[in-house]
């Protein structure tokens, strides 16, 4: 009900706001009744002398066009029905002008008085999708101000129906895109064409034929669907005009090829479709063009062209995703082949490595055995010598060979045939050296502080020979005449460096001792071994003798 204190301008703004709110709440044409109720009440609040009011929606897709009437009676009841004067209403809509029949009893150009005997005057106000109709019991009931208000309502209706069309376009684009995504082969394009036709009909775009022209290199494959549902896919062939339109990248609309045939295509189109085609449009997208034609001139308006561009963008999204999926599938196939090839190579390599492991184990085993044979030969030769110095020299060499044989024995038993725990190895070696010199029966203690250190075979052999030589020297010379003492063995690592130390608290080296000029074969061997390890040798004579070799190690 109108507010008696409300100014005409405020009343008009309120009615407009209410109608606009109802329009935005409408999701499809099924909501037309609620919108019509709001419009009718708004017009009554504005003082428009209504009897009936209605919205006549033109379906321009059907041939001939149909008109669906949404009518509301004085009691506020609305009905949706086929318009009894469809051709007349279509004429009003097509003219684009307000058609006001002021006195049906005296001037009835459209034979409406007998159809609506209780109506004295009728007005139709066209908008983009149909007409807003109002009637009254009074002759000449609608003033110029009333007509202006009706025009405002028609403009709001146009916005509302355009919004519904936009919602339909969004849904149609989504359906079209998803249908493209479902494609698994060329034959699946037919269902895409069916979905396209349904989308065009849903959007009210009248057309005779629709096509998706797909470009492959310099060839074009035309997938065409007639309005009646017949679908045909042509073989790829050169299509210079389609290629030209596609490369142009913008919609090309020929509103009436009978009047202006820009591309000399009218004859070919008429021959192919066996009917007169008047309007043609091509909308390019990434993979080709979306093409429509119609037997009507000027068949496609600006809104419809905008929707066609929107649908073409949906096609583009779909086909790009199909391309991406095909690339991904090919990539996955390539990866599967590569994985299979690598698996075969790894199996072959594993087999080869297993064979080499067996061979290397056998090599270590044979080297150990051969070194033990050499050790036994040296022992036999030493036993045959009378010279004590010579026997001692042979025994020393024999002990050094046994230390190397000990490494190969460890490697033979290890799962890693190329590396060994140097810490574990030199501990076992030290215990063997102490035992061989009978130190357990002397008042000499062995103190060991060794960290684990994985090294290659060469490094382990060098460390073993160093431990053997230095430990042997301590046991032989540091504690004469049964003197008690302690021998220290340590191996520590820090920052890619290892430090091997052997020392004792025995009698120490003479003040004049110089390892560089020493005649001792063993000490010269120590110097050479330290150099081969790329290490540095330090001697500390404080409280006995301490040898330290610092050398680089892998991380």
Task: Determine the N-to-C terminus distance.
Answer: 90 Å
Strand elements, count: 19
CATH architecture term of the largest domain: 2-Layer Sandwich
Oligomeric description of these chains? single chain
What is the CATH level 1 assignment of the largest domain? Alpha Beta
What percent of residues are in strands? 15-25%
Can you tell me the CATH topology of the largest domain?
Beta-Lactamase
Low-confidence stretches: none
- State the shape: elongated
Mean pLDDT: 81
Total domain units: 3
Helix/strand structural class: alpha+beta
The major β-sheet equals: 6 strands, antiparallel
CATH superfamily of the largest domain: GAF domain
- Radius of gyration based on Cα positions: 51 Å
- Helicity level: 40-55%
Number of helical regions: 12
Strand order of the largest sheet: 3-2-1-6-5-4
Blueprint (SSEs and pairs):
Elements: H1 8-25, H2 32-45, E1 53-59, E2 66-72, E3 78-82, H3 86-95, E4 99-101, E5 121-127, E6 130-136, H4 144-181, H5 189-202, E7 209-216, E8 219-226, E9 231-233, H6 240-248, E10 252-254, H7 266-273, E11 279-285, E12 288-294, H8 302-384, H9 388-413, E13 419-421, H10 422-436, E14 444-450, E15 454-456, H11 457-478, E16 485-494, E17 497-504, H12 521-532, E18 536-540, E19 545-552
Helix pairs in contact: 1-2, 1-4, 4-5, 4-8, 8-9, 9-11, 10-11, 11-12
């Amino acid at each position: 009900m109108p507010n008696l204190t409300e100014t005409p301008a405020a009343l008009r703004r309120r009615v407009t706001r209410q109608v606009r709110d109802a329009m935005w709440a409408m999701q499809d044409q099924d909501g037309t009744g609620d919108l019509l109720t709001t419009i009718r009440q708004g017009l009554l609040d504005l003082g428009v002398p209504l009897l009936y009011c209605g919205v006549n929606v033109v379906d321009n897709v059907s041939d001939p066009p149909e008109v669906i009437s949404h009518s509301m009676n004085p009691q506020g009841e609305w009905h949706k029905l086929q318009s009894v004067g469809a051709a007349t209403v279509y004429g009003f809509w097509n003219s684009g002008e307000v058609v006001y029949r002021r006195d049906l009893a005296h001037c009835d150009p459209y034979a409406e008085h007998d159809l609506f005997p209780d109506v004295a005057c009728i007005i139709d106000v066209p908008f983009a999708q149909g007409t807003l109709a109002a009637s009254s019991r009074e002759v000449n009931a609608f003033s110029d101000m009333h007509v202006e208000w009706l025009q405002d309502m028609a403009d709001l209706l146009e916005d509302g129906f355009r919004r519904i069309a936009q919602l339909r376009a969004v849904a149609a684009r989504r359906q079209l895109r998803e249908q493209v995504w479902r494609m698994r082969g060329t034959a699946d394009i037919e269902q895409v064409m069916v979905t396209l036709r349904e989308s065009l009909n849903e959007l009210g775009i009248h057309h005779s034929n629709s096509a998706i022209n797909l470009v492959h290199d310099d060839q074009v494959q035309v997938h065409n669907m007639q309005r009646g549902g017949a679908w045909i896919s042509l073989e790829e062939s050169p299509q210079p005009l389609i290629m030209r339109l596609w490369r142009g990248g913008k919609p090309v609309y020929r509103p009436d090829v009978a009047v202006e045939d820009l591309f000399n295509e009218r004859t070919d189109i008429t021959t192919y479709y066996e009917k007169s085609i008047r309007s043609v449009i091509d909308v390019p997208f990434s993979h080709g063009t979306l093409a429509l034609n119609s037997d009507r001139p000027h068949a496609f308006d600006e809104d419809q062209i905008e929707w066609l561009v929107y649908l073409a963008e949906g096609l583009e999204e779909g086909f790009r995703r199909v391309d991406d999926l095909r690339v991904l599938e090919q990539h996955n196939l390539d990866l599967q082949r590569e994985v299979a090839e690598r698996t075969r190579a790894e199996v072959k390599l594993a087999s080869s490595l297993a064979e080499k492991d067996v061979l290397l184990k056998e090599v270590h085993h044979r080297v150990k055995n051969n070194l033990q044979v050499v050790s036994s030969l040296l022992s036999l030769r030493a036993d045959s010598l009378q010279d004590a110095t010579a026997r001692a020299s042979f025994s020393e060499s024999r002990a050094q060979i046994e230390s190397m044989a000990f490494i190969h024995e460890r490697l033979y038993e290890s799962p890693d045939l190329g590396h060994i725990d140097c810490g574990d190895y030199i501990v076992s070696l030290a215990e063997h050296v102490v035992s061989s010199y009978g130190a357990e029966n002397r008042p000499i203690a062995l103190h060991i502080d060794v960290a684990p250190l994985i090294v290659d075979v060469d490094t382990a052999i060098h460390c073993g020979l160093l431990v053997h030589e230095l430990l042997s020297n301590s046991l032989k010379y540091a504690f004469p005449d049964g003197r008690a003492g302690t021998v220290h063995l340590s191996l520590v690592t820090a920052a890619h460096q290892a430090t091997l130390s052997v020392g004792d608290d025995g009698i120490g080296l003479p003040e004049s001792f110089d390892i560089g000029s020493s005649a001792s074969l063993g000490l010269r061997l120590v110097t050479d071994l330290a150099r081969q390890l790329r290490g540095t040798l330090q001697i500390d004579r404080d409280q006995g003798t301490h040898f330290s070799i610092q050398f680089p190690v892998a991380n």
